[in-house]
Each structure stands twice: as structure tokens, then as C-alpha cells.
Amino acid sequence: MAEKIKLSKKDRMSVAWRHQFLQGSWNYERMQNGGWCYSIIPAIKKLYPNEEDRIAALKRHMEFYNTHPYVSAPVMGVTLALEEERANSAEINDQSIQGVKIGMMGPLAGVGDPVFWFTLRPILGALGASLALSGNIIGPLLFFFAWNIIRMGFLWYTQEFGYKVGSSIVKDLSGGILRKITQGASILGMFIIGSLVQRWVSIRFTPVVSRVVQSEGAYIDWSKIQAGAEGIKSALEQYSDLGAAGLNIEKVTTLQQNLDQLIPGLAALLLTLLCCWLLKKKVSPIVIIIALFVVGILAHLGGIM
């Protein structure tokens, strides 16, 4: 029986060091895939002595990947454990590894921003700035060293945590734990993506459906507004009663307003599903991005959007 291949602490530390440069080759097509692949190279070299296996492993880690660069470490840890078991002949396919990565990266990305960008860094920055304003050189040094010690420590220990958790997952492959984790992670990832559609995808159709002249009293008659403070007070009082619709004599209804009343966010959802379908048909993301730019510009010039 062949000796089991095991990632040493030195191997995992090499991966953690490289993982600091996750965004070094960020791109609009697959985002952090280049940095991820660069990070995992030491482990791939150790686990797969055969060159063909190494090439196949690097190719599967060149797929789409994107999350907060600091909370990516536990994802890397779990992935290292899965790759280690696969190298030792466990039945773990490419889809299982990619499914776990995609399922974890979405929820973790939502944690990284508020913890690091909106809490830790402002606190350390404010502390360092307060010392620097008094002429103390310790201010910027404190920020630099404290931030990097916390950052690097967090990357290492959370990667180790993910590695240990991943090892426990793959011990019971016969029980289907990995399959359940992969399925659950994929469902969670799709849920996160679905919840972000309404927030990040914006489509507004500008064609006018109807124009209705409002009856007297349903709008602010600017010709009857007095000059001076009394006129301003009167206009504000009428606006508080009538709302934005009272600013104009004519009430204009657009196609987008009708769609929002029926199913808010329908156009954004359909566009997202179209992009997913095109990606499934192996259409390049770059082609989709360029097509969206072209369609958007032409629709705007044509008065559609």
C-alpha cells in the first residue's frame, strides 16, 4: 500500500503566504482565480508528483472565484484538505471541490467587509492618527504593525481551521457528508446570489405608457404661489399633502412604474437568468459584458432605457 501523501505545516504556510496576494491578478472574467491558483501551487506540487495531474489540478483552480481576500483563508483550508484526500485516491471530483468553494465564498464575503473594512481598520486608523497628530511616530507604526499582525494571523489560523474541518468532512465519504456539504453550500451560494440581484442589477425602462392631466387641487398651481416666505411655506404645505405627484400638472406613467407595480425586479431577474443561461452554454463572460454595454448604450440612445 502506497504511503499517504500529507501536507506538512511548511507546505500550508507557503500557501498562506502566497494567499496574501490573492488579488494580485484580479480580472473581470474570473476575478480572483489567478491569485487563488498561485496560492495553491505549493500544495499541488506536493500532492501530485505526476505532471499531468498537476496540470489538471491547476486547471480546476482557474475557475471563477471571488470573495473578501482575508476571509478566503478558511475556504483555502477546506480546499487543501479535499485536494489532499483526492491525491490519496478518495472519490472527490472537480464539481465537489468547486461547489464547496463557491458555496463558502458568498456568505464569507458578507462577513469580511463589516469586520475588516468597516470596523477593525477604522479603529486602528483612528488610534494611529490620534497619535500621529500629536507628533508621535508610534502612530503610523502602530497602525502598520497592528494591522498586518492581525491580518496575517487571521489568514493563518483560519486556514488551519478550514484544513482541520475539511479533513473531518472527508473522513466519512461513504456516509455522503461531502455530498451533503457540497449541495448545501451550492444552495446557500445560489440564495446569496439571488438576494443580491435586486441590489446590484438595475434596469429602468423609460418609455411613457400614459399621460394624464390632473384635476385642479391635485397639483401645486405655481402661478398662485405668493412670492416670499409665505409662498415657500404654502408650497411646502401642499407638497406634504400631495407628495411628488403634485409637482406637475400632468401625471406621467412609465413602463418601469407598471412593471414595479406588477413584479418589482422582474427585469433584473430575467437579465440575471439570461446571463446564467449564456454562461451554461459556454459563452465567454467577456462577450456577455461587452454585449451588455452595447445593448445598454443602444437602448439608452433609442429612448428605451
The structural class is mainly alpha
- % residues in beta strands: under 5%
Give the end-to-end Cα distance, rounded to a whole number of Å.
Answer: 66 Å
Low-confidence stretches: none
Main sheet: strands, sense, barrel: 2 strands, antiparallel
Principal-axes geometry comes out as flat
- Number of continuous helical runs: 11
**Overall number of domains:** 3
In total, the number of strands is: 2
User: Which range best describes the helical content: under 10%, 10-25%, 25-40%, 40-55%, 55-70% or over 70%?
Assistant: 55-70%
What's the helix-strand series? HHHHHHHEHEHHH
Strand order of the largest sheet: 1-2
CA-based gyration radius? 28 Å
What number is the mean pLDDT? 80
Notes on the protein architecture:
The chain folds into 3 domains: 9-199, no CATH class; 204-214 and 249-305, no CATH class; 215-245, no CATH class. It has 305 residues and is mainly alpha-helical. Helix 2 packs antiparallel against helix 3 (51-60), helix 2 packs parallel to helix 4 and helix 4 runs parallel beside helix 6 (138-170). It is built from 11 helices and 2 strands; from the N terminus they run αααααααβαβααα. The mean pLDDT is 80.
